[in-house]
Amino acid sequence: MNWHLLPLSEIVQLLNTTPSGIDAVTASEHLREHGKNQIEDKKKKTILQMLLHQLLDFMILILITAAVISGILGDVTDAVIILAIVVINAFVGFIQEYRAEKAMEALKNMVANHARILREGKMIDTPASDLVPGDVVVLEAGNIIPADVRFFETHQVKVDESALTGESNNVEKNPEELSAGDYPLGDRANMGYKGTSITSGRALAYVVATGMNTELGNIAKMIQTDETTTPLQKRLTAFGKRLSVTILIICTVIFLIGWLRGESVLTMLITSISLAVAAIPEALPALVTIALAFGAKKLAKSNALIRKLPAVETLGSVTYICSDKTGTLTLNKMTVQEIFETSDTKYDAVFAESNMLLHIMALNNDVSKEENGKWLGDSTEVALVQYAFDKNLNRADLELKFPRIAELPFDSKRKCMTTIHQIENPAADQSTAIIVITKGAVDVLFDKLNVDQKSLIPEFELKVNEMAEKGYRVLGYAMKILPSLPENLDADEIETELTLIGFAGMIDPPREEARQAVTECKEAGIIPVMITGDHKLTAKAIAEKLGIISTDEDLVLTGPELTALTQIEFINIVEKVKVYARVNPEQKLRIINALQSKNHFVAMTGDGVNDAPALKNADIGIAMGINGTEVSKEASHMILLDDNFATIVVAIKHGRKIFDNILKFIKYIMTGNSGEIWAIFLAPFFGLPIPLLAIHILWINLVTDGLPGLALASEPSESNIMKRPPRNPKENIFSNGMAIHILWVGFLMGAVTIGMQAWAIHSANTHWQTMAFTVLCFSQLGHVIIIRSGTQSIFKIGFFSNKPMLGALTITIILQFTIIYTPFFNEVFKTQPLTIYELLLTLAASSIIFCSGEFEKWIKNRNK
Ligand code: ATP
C-alpha cells in the first residue's frame, strides 16, 4: 500500500482510527487480523529439527549401525542398551539445545522495546510487539520507531534512517501529503519506518504496518545477524573440530591395535566409536550458551539486563569503566546550595521587584507540575525552579505576565538552553518587548556575553571556581531585551550579546555505593573513569570524593583540551586521565579508540541519542534503564535497570564467576574424557584387555560426566574473584595450566584404572572389569570436587558450599551402586557385585586423583 501518497483523511478511514487512537476492542481485532508486531526469526529450528540434529550426527549414526549389526549377529542386550543410551544422550542434548533456545528467547523478551501510544485519547506505555495498524504512536527524540507509521503531527522531527537506507544524514519529516510519483523510501518525508530512530523533535503518527509487513520485515532475512555466538563458543567450536580429528585418529589406532590383538572387529568398532562419541565434546557450545543465558537471567535480578549474550562472557575482561557522572556516579538529586547575582543593573526595570536572578530562574525552566504538587522533569531543572519557588517566585504566576513565545531547548552539545518571553507592559516605542533568557554551562555563556561584560569575565571566573571547587554544578544565567521576536530562531543568532545576571551552584551528592564500587574496581585491576559535561573543577571535586582521583598523577582533561590533542598525543596520556570534563558525547568515541589502541577492554555508559556510536563501539556498551533513550538502549550490550555505577561492578563480578564456572566445567569434562582415552589406549601396551565395554564408556559420558558437571554452574564465586586482574579476552582458555591439567590428571586417571585392572587380573579376580569401571567413575567424582576451586583447598571452601553438587554426587553414586549391585543391571551392564574389600580398594585407588588434585593446589599456593 502506498501510504505516503494517501491523504490523511483516507488513512484514518482505512485504518478505522482517529487522532486520539483506537479503543481496546478494535485493537484486539486488529491484533487478531495482523498478528504481533514482531520480526520473525527465520533461523529458528523446530523441535523436530532439534531432535533430528542430535540423532543425525555422523558418529552417532555409525554407532547405531554398528550396534544394530552386533545385535543381529548375536548380542541383542548389548545392542539394545547402546541404542537406549544413545537415544537418552540425544534427548539430553536436545533438552540442552531447547533450554538454550528458550533462555535466549526469554532474554530477548526481557529487553523488549516499549512504545507510547494513544488509546481513546489516553497515553499508555505498551510493549512494541502489541502495536496494531491504526494505533497512534507518540514519538520523541531518542525513540526507535516501533512500526511503519504515517506522521500526522510533527515538531522539528528528524529521523536517522541509516539502518534501513544506509543514508547517514538525518531526514526531516512532516505530515504533508506527497504528490503522485515514485518515491524511494528515503524520500517519503511523511513516513517513519520500523527500526529507524528519532534524533530530534516530537511527533504523532498512525501505525500503518506492523511486524513482517513493515519495510524492515521485508528485508529482515537479509539483516538477521548472528549475535548470539560468543567468542568462547567460536573458539570452542573451532577447537572441537581439531579435537574431533585427533580423537578419531586415536580411536582408529585403538581399533587397529585391538583388532591386531585378536579382538572381534565388531566389538572393537563399537568400543572405539563409543569412545569417540563420548570423548568428542560436541555439546560444549550449547552448554556454554545455557550457562551464559542462565547467568544473564541472574544478572537481570541484580539490575543488569544483558542485551547481547557475549557480554556475559566478556564482562570479566573489562579493564576500564568509563562512566557518566550524573545519575550513575551521583544520585541525580540536585539542590541549589547558593546563588550569586552580578551587580549589572542594565535590565533592572524589567521586573518590578529587585531579585532579577530568581525571576529568570523561574522563567527559564522546563518542568511541569504534577497534580500532587511534585515537579516533573530533569533534576537540574527541578532544583532551580524549586529554589525560586521557595523564595516566593512561582513560575506559573510569572508566566502569566511573561508568557513564553519561543524556545531553544537544552542540548548537551550546546550545553545551554534559551527561553523567549513577551513582556507584559512593553515600552511605548516597543524597544523592550521581548526577553531572551539563556541558562547554561558558565564557560559557554562567557563566550556569549556583550562587550561591556567581557572584561569582567576573570572576576566571574573566580566566583565560579570557588563554587565548582566545592563540587557544585554551576549554571550561569544571562539575558537580553529585543524589540521583537527574531524570524530566524537560530541559536548562533539569538544566544549572543547577552548580559550575565548571575550563577546558581547546586550539589548532586555522590552515590555512597559508587564509592565502594570504585574501591572494588581498583582492587580488581579495573580503572574507573568519569565522563561528564560538567565543569572541570566540579568534576574533579566529585571524582576525589568518589576515589576516582586518588593521586597527583591522575589527570583531568576537558573536551576542548582533548580536541587540541592529536590522537598520538592523546594515546600517550590516555591511561593517566581519570576524569573527562566538558566533553561532548561524540568525544566518547575518541576515548574508546585511544583506550582500545592500548589494548584495553572498555565498558562505556551512555544515555542519549548521541551516545549510540560510543555504546556500539565500546567492548561493553552500557545504557541507562531509567534515564536512557531507546536509541542508546538499542545500541548497548547491557542495560542498567537502576542507572547505578555499582551495578556495573556487580555485573563484572558475576561475569567473572560465570566464566570461571564455564572453564571449570570444560576442565572437568575434558579431563574425564582424557582419562577414558588414556585407559583404553594404554591397556594394550601393558598386555591388558580393553578395560571398559562400550556401554561403560557411554554410561560414564552420560551420568558421571553429565550430572556433577552441570552442578559446577552453581559454584559460588571464589573469594579472590575481585582481587585478581581482568582476564585477557584474547587469552587461550587452555593456557594457564588447563591443557596440562587435562593431560596429566587424565593420564593419572587412566593409569590408576588400568593399574587396578592389572592388579585384579594378576590376582585372578574375575571382577576386574567392574573394578576398573568403578575406579574410573569414582576418580571423576573425586576430580569434580577438587575442581570446584582452582586455588583453594576443598577443606577451605567446604564440602557443603555447593548444594546442587552434593545432590549430583549423591545421585551419581546411587546410580553407580545400582548398576553394580542389582542383578538386572548386572546383566545389562555386564557388571558384577563387588565385595566390600573390592569396593574399598576401588575407593582407595580413585582417591589418588582427589589427593593429587589437592596436592597440585598446595604446590601452586606454596610457590606463590
Ligand atoms: P553527565 O555527567 O552524565 O555527562 P551532565 O548533566 O554533566 O551529565 P549534560 O546533560 O550533557 O551532561 O550537560 C552538560 C552541561 O550542560 C552541564 O554540565 C551543565 O553545565 C549544562 N546543563 C545541564 N543541564 C542543563 C539545563 N537543564 N539547562 C542549561 N544547562 C544545562
From TrEMBL:
Domain Cation-transporting P-type ATPase N-terminal, first and last residues per copy: 2-75
Compartments, as annotated in UniProt: Cell membrane
Record key words, sorted: ATP-binding, Cell membrane, Membrane, Nucleotide-binding, Translocase, Transmembrane, Transmembrane helix
Major location (coarse): membrane
Residues annotated as transmembrane: 51-73, 79-98, 243-260, 266-294, 733-761, 806-824, 836-855
Membrane association type: Multi-pass membrane protein
Cited Gene3D superfamilies: Calcium-transporting ATPase, cytoplasmic domain N, Calcium-transporting ATPase, cytoplasmic transduction domain A, Calcium-transporting ATPase, transmembrane domain, HAD superfamily/HAD-like
Pfam families per record: Cation_ATPase, Cation_ATPase_C, Cation_ATPase_N, E1-E2_ATPase
SMART domains per record: Cation_ATPase_N (SM00831)
NCBIfam families linked: ATPase_P-type
Family: Belongs to the cation transport ATPase (P-type) (TC 3.A.3) family. Type IIA subfamily.
Protein name stated in the entry: Cation-translocating P-type ATPase
